[in-house]
Amino acid sequence: MFAFVVDRHVLVCAPGSHNHSQRPRRMQNKGAKLTLLGAVLVSSLTIWAVHFQQDQERENMYKGVLRDDERRREKMRQREQELEESRKKRELYERVQAVERAAD
Prior knowledge:
The chain has one helix at about 30-95; strands spanning about 1-5, 10-15, 25. It is mainly alpha-helical. InterPro entries: Pet117.
């Protein structure tokens, strides 16, 4: 069954009634009109909700990437700080204790 609007009237074509000499008859039943309207509204809302959910998921995934980048930067800062501390300790130990360098 196909339904379409012409001049603010909902028209219906039943399957198998594609006789080109006949005009589609008007949908007389208010219940049928309301059902069609409800189906269109529910479909539209469903499509909108799916797109909204996809946008939210995409945004959350992007925030995850940003968090991972920040974690990596923090880890690099910590490693650089530990390396600097290690160099200072080595320098201090070398001043206190004589260290022989290995011959190349």
